[in-house]
Protein: Amine oxidase domain-containing protein
Organism: Streptomyces gougerotii
Amino acid sequence: MSPQASHDVIVIGAGASGLAAATALHAAGRDVIVLEARDRTGGRLLSAPTQRPGRALDLGATWFWTGEERVRTLAARNGIDTFGQHLAGDTMLQETTGIRRLTGNLIDAPSRRFAAGAQSIPASLAAALPTGSLRLDTPVTGIRPTRPGGLAVLTPARPFHAAHVVLAVPPALALERIDFGDALPAELVRLAQATPVWMGAAVKVVAHYPDAFWRQEGLAGAAFSRTGPLQEIHDMSGPGGGPAALFGFAHARTVRPGFQQAVCAQLAQLFGPAADSPTALHVQDWSSERWTAPSTVQHLADYSLFGHPLYRRPALNGSLHWASTETATDHAGHIEGALASAERAARAVLAAPTGVNNTTQRTSPPPAGRPSA
């Protein structure tokens, strides 16, 4: 076995929370690496490129809202353009008895989106890290306390060691994919295994069109359906209507042969014949994503566990810190929640006593005040 590489902090997961924690800790002078199982950054922030330069369609998280200052500040600081969600127009309602047009947009609330897609947020964070500190295709298989302190982080290729580990993946996924032995308290294990994974059971479908034709008919691109396959639908067009797109959510159990044809037929019933022929139809089944959803994801439904007090307490002798949107007490389930949890984890690492565990800490002191996220 290769010798252990030792670092101040190892962050597991290169989604928004993991990368925000890593950049804050790097800015504070810590030697930090990020281990990511996927071959990309972003986690549940995933954007499909389009032929329009600088424009993308979100297959994962999409919006942020007024009062979510961490997201707004991060986007502004990194020159990421945002724009308001399209709201004007009427809503379509699909029931077993037929389809009705309802006055006004009854689904969407004022919110903002990212012109280049939400994945531009983790991309900007990753760009701020030193070369070599982000390791893709590196799943973590085990975590063990070590003596005299810190944690051993096991991967298929080699082990690593750190004084602190930031676990920036959904708790239920972490408990299923990472072997902790019997190191974690039973209460924490039960909590993590029961905590839902935000969007983990969702299927997001995005239909890309040449133009936002529904707007010409006075429709908002918003719809409710009690017959499916899409249960709710929104306008996902970019600034000024381009690229033009509609998106909706479906249950994973409905994704079977013929699903795409059923989606196009439903969109045509709601928005007219032009909706039957999108130029592209993206189907993102998050429940089938190995590095998002545990096998139990369809059965996890107690959202009151989000932000549980146990997630705010470092585990394993103060060395293991939770950071994912599910662990946030503020805006859990949102991108803002991911950034808030990263901020909390980074603050806990920086506040921890230094000693023999911090084997490679730089001499520069941490900045005053709240770490940047």
Observations:
- The first strand starts at residue 5 and ends at 12.
- The chain has two domains: 5-42+121-196+292-351, 51-60+84-115+201-288.
